[in-house]
Every structure is written in C-alpha cells, then in structure tokens.
Amino acid sequence: MRKYTAGILKEFWLLKRDIHALMVLFVMPSLFILIMSLAMRDAFSQNSQVHFKAMVVCEENTTASRDFVAHLKAIKGFEWSEGKATQVPVQMMERDILVGVIVRTGFDEAIHKNTPQNRKLTVLIAPEATPVAKILFETAVAGTAAKINMVNQMSSLNPWMTREEKEEALADKVWFEEHFLQGKDMTDIRPTSVQQSVPAWLIFSMFFIIIPISNTFVNERRLGTLARLAVMNVSIENLLISKMIPYFVINQIQFVAMLMVGMFIVPLFGGDALSVGDNVGALLVVSSVLSFASISYALALASFVRTTDQAVTIGGVLNIIFAAIGGIMIPLFVMPPFMQQLAVLSPMSWGLESFLALFLHNSALSDIWLSLGALVLFGSLCLGLAAWKLNRELKEAL
Amino acid sequence: MITVVSVTKIFGEKRVLNNVSFSIPRGSITGLLGRNGAGKTTLMGILCGLIRADSGLVLVGEVKLFENMTKARSMIGYVPQKTSLYLEMTGRENLTYFGLILGLSGKKLMQAVTEAVKATSLEEVLDKRVSHYSGGMQKRLNLAIGLLGNPPILYLDEPTVGVDSESREIILETLVKRSKEHGTTILYVSHYLQEVEKMCDRLIVLDKGSVVASDTTINLLREVENLEQYLEENLQK
Question: Looking at CA atoms only, how far is residue A395 from chain B in angstroms?
C-alpha cells in the first residue's frame, strides 16, 4: 500500500510543476466549451435566432402582392429587406443576402386566375446557400403564395368576405404542439449547443492526459528509473496502478470543472446553461470509464515512443483525428452518412454518444452498455499493451 | 554474501555469459572490470534479478535470488549508471519517494534521508529541483538513493562517469566509509582502473562472458605490476 501512496504522491508532485499540461487539461477545454457553445448556439437554437438574409422585390402594387410580401416577411428564420430587382444579384455577390424573391407584374392576375404556371414569382438562391436554406426559402415562398391563392379562391366563392375574415384566414395557425423526447418521456428541455460542446471538449481534454503522463513516463523509461524501481520490488502492476489513480482523479476534476463551466460560465456570456439530465450516477460511470480508456491509451503510447516530444506529437495528432471523425469538432448530425459511420472508429465518439444519450435522452446505463463496453475493451487492450512493452523493456533497461 | 555459481546466459546465438562463478565476501568492495561487450551489464541485470539466467545459481546471503526474488532484492541497493531521478522534483522529494517505496516512513524515513544527504554532502541543494543540479550533484543524489535504508548489499554501475573531481571524491569516500562502518558489501563496475585499484579489496575481470581473473586486489597487483597494461594485453580483442 505504501508503494501506491508513494507513486501517487510522486505523480502529484510532478504534475503540479507541469504548468503547460495543466493549462491543456483545464484552460483549453474551458475556452473551447465557451467559444464553441456560443459559436454554435444559433445552429441548435429552437427560437428565431437563425436568420438567412433575404430580399423581397415587389414590382406591382396590388392587394395580393402586398399581402404576399407582408406574410412572407412574417415568416421566422429570415432577415428581410426590400429592394429593386437589379439589386438582388449585386447584393448576393457582395454576400449581403443569401436568397431573394421577385414578385413580377401580373402576380395579382395569376392569383385571381389561379394560374401558378404563369410563374410570376422568381426565386434567386446564392451559390453558397446550403440545401437546408434553399428548401426552407422555397417552402416559405410556395407556402405563402398558396395561402394567398387559397384566400383569394375563398373570397371569390364568398364575395361578402370582409378584410378581417381574410386576415383571419391568412393568419398563421399552429396545428401541433412541440415536445423534445428524453428517452420515452416527453419534456420541454431543448437540446442546446452547450450540451454538445461540454461533453465533446471534456472528452477531448481527457485524452490529452497523454501530455503529463508521457512527460513522466518517457523519462522514467529513458533514465532507467523503471529498472531501479523494479530492483526495489515495484511490480509493473504496482507502477501502472499508481500512475492511473492520480490521473483518474485529475480526469474527474476535469469532468466536474467542465460541467461547471457549462452550467455557470457559458450563460454569463449569453449561451444556454447546460442541463445534465437526472442520471448523475450514470454520468459518473461514463466519466470513469472514459478516464480508464484515456489513461490506458496514454500509457500505451508513452510505452512505445522514445521521447516526450514524440509522445506529444503522435498523441496530439491521433487525438485530433479521433476528435475530427468522432463528432467532437463537428457534431455527427452535420456529417454525411458515411462520415457518421466512420465515427465508430473513434473511442472519443463512444464516450460522446454515451454522454449525449444521458444528457438528451435521460438514458440508463443499460442503454449505453455497448459504447461503455467498447471503451472498457479499448482501455484494457491499451493497458495490456503497456504492461507487455514495459515487461519486455525492463529486461533491456540496464 | 554474494555467490554466483555457473551462471550462463544466451541471447539468440550469442553466449553472453559463460559458466560465470565467483563469490563476494561480506563487507568487501569488489570491482567488476571488463571491456564493452564483456557481459558486465548482463551480469548486473542477473544480480539485480532483472534478467533471468539460463542456468546457474545466484545466492544473496542464504537466499536463492530467482526463488525468492522479493526477499533477495530487499537486501540490495542499486545505483544505476544513468541518473535515474525525477528531474522536476527536489532532492528531498526524490529521496522521500524512493524511501517510501522501500517501506520507510515517519521518523525512520526522515532519518534515512538525513543520513543519505549527509553522506553525499547534498545538504545545501536538498530543496532545489534536481534539474538545477550539476552532473556531479545528480550522481551524488543517485548514490544517496541507493544508500537509503542501509542495504547490506550495494551494486554500483559506473557511478563516477562524467563526474567532477570533487563529486568523485565524495562518492568514493562515501563508499569506503559505508563498507567499513556498516559492513556493506559493494560490487562496483567501473572503467577507471585507478579508482578500482585504490578502493576495491577484490577484483573480478570479465572477458567475452567468462571470468578471466577473480582475486584480491593485492594478489592481482602482486602478480602484475601494471594492471592496466595486464588487462590491455590479456583481454581478447
């Protein structure tokens, strides 16, 4: 037991002097969480914070065209401006607007005659518009035109229809109620960018435990300290476990600190507050399993490289690749299907999926056993590899 | 105190140690000499229990090394050639860590640290980070760790390589004092013949994995006037 205490004490002594590593473990993820939560806030927002800049041009002054423009401009998700037809391509080139619609002369007549084939509406889309923006805009234009056309048909059937009745018919009516699922329960908790950012950058920083671990471990191998410890009856199991415990504690402090950043710091800058769901015990299990995987991976890597520079470079590059394909840097739902399938190769993705399941779906551990099992298996393989390499190396250490 | 009987070690096709036998009496300082590739490092690895011999026997006191490794190792202090230290920790922290590893604690640990520091004259730099030490000071701390807990046996692998004359003197004095005052059995690997001649009671000369000479220093010097020349002429090239 004293050997474990000594090992843990030693790792803490070394860690408290490794300022750069502490910055990477705590400051880097805090900043990433703050920046990415704010940067992606609108992409996740369920209210009208998403704005595509749009221009409407009305070339005729009729009741139908005025109603069309008024109701189009009332649709959420666009930031409208009005102008002339010649301004639309100019402003698109200057990237002042993303989409535009021109109401041509004859729109009123086409509405009255119910002849949509006359094409009196011209929709213009900038090349950089995403397919989502294009579909959203075309749906808004088509839906508004259909509504104007419907009211016009109604008033031709009922010539005594008043202006108020027409307005009532044109008014937006919400025919559904909206809930967000958490597991099988319907709740009003909305998914937010901070719920993606906190687990994503927490996992990323947990894997950067490679820096302090390799700083110590590579030197222990290089300077023959491991051989000296072996002569002092320190076993490889003893050595690895006494390394894992302090870094596990560091990982758990990271976990709590990043949750705090999401819950209390991000809202101070205008972002949403993190909602962690009800299953705190399961969160701790995920965090512990992730910690086991990331420390074992760091120990395996640090067992094979020759210098700390190699460890930091190779570990850093691998971490970035794991993060890029694992949905850490870019949320998985934004990726095309084949990239989403590729994510299964990243241990960071297994951790992220587990956290998101707990945050967004209030899942139980039984729902995420596959991801957790994969992390445990990955960690065990890495740890086995580290033990095998150390055992082999000790024989050549003198 | 240490008995090696017919130890053989083969790596692949190469017979690195060939039927090596010798004994080291309690309280003696024995020098282990040999060219590069003579098998000194492998022999040191076997004596520390880091490498298993293919055949033969190693006794540490009455204990068979490979049958009761933990007990045998508990009698051994090992000072590797590399300065196996934690450079970002202070001298005191290094000594405390290795002391705890050896099972010392409380007053015993403090006393052991104090004694080791005094023996190696490191009092003034004890609370400085080891990365700020000179090469000689690092070697002295390396030795101080080996002295912790007064092990009855001390193996030293070229402890004075790259060390300034002041530190070298301190290291050699410390070892002689240890042997005389504590009865510590010391096995000392070195390339510096003058050092070995001056300090060691006994000498073992290894060449191509075999012991070619094993006697007291006095007897060996009686046989040959110039030990360096003798070794130069008799060791296989």
Answer: 6
Residue B87 and residue B142 share a domain: yes
Q: Tell me if A2 and B103 make a contact (CB, 8 A cut-off).
A: yes
Are B35 and B122 found together in one domain? no
Per the structure block, which two tokens stand in for A64?
A: 């139908």
In a domain, B172, yes or no: no
CB contact under 8 A, B85 and A398: no
Of the candidates B50, B97, B145, which has its C-beta nearest A397's C-beta? Answer: B50
pLDDT for A224-245, tens place per residue? Answer: 898 899 999 998 899 899 999 9
- DSSP secondary structure string, B177-195? HHHHHH--EEEEE-S-HHH
Token representation of residue A327: 């949905």
Q: Is residue A340 over pLDDT 70?
A: yes
CA distance from start to end of chain B? 32
* Residues B137 and B225 grouped into a single domain: no
Inter-chain residue contact B97 with A10, CB threshold 8 Å: yes
Between chains, do B88 and A397 touch, taking CB under 8 Å as contact?
no
Task: Determine contact, residues B64/B204, Cβ cutoff 8 Å.
Answer: no
Asked if residues A306 and A218 have their Cβ atoms less than 8 Å apart, the reply is yes
* B141 and B157 inside one domain: no
- Per-residue model confidence as pLDDT tens digits over B121-163: 899 999 999 999 999 999 999 999 999 989 999 999 988 888 8
| Chain B nearest C-alpha distance from A308 (Å) | 14
Residues B157 and B54 in one domain: yes
Residues of B within 8 A of A5 (CB-CB) are: 100
Quick one: B4 and B71 in the same domain?
Answer: yes
Structural domain count, chain B: 2
Task: Flag whether the pTM goes above 0.80.
Answer: no
Residues of A in contact with B87 (CB under 8 A): 219
Is A231 close to B157, i.e. CB distance below 8 A?
no
> From the CB of residue A221, how many other CB atoms can be counted at a distance below 10 Å?
21
B113 and B92 in contact (C-beta within 8 Å)?
yes
Say what percent of chain B tops pLDDT 70.
95
Quick check: is B58 in a domain?
A: yes
Q: Which residues of A touch B98 (CB under 8 A)?
A: 232
> Residue B99 is part of which domain span?
83-150
Which burial class, exposed, middle or buried, applies to A349 when counting CB atoms under 10 A from its CB (0-12, 13-18, 19+)? buried
B173 in any annotated domain: no
Q: Which of B48, B76, B84 sits opposite A223 (nearest CB)?
A: B84
Same domain assignment for residues B160 and B70:
yes
Token couple for B6:
């017919």
Distance from CA of B112 to the nearest CA of A (A): 16
What CATH number does residue B236 fall under? 3.40.50.300
B199, part of any domain: yes
Of A9, A18, A398, the CB nearest to B97: A9
Residues B95 and B195 in one domain: no
pLDDT class for A49, splitting at 50, 70, 90? low
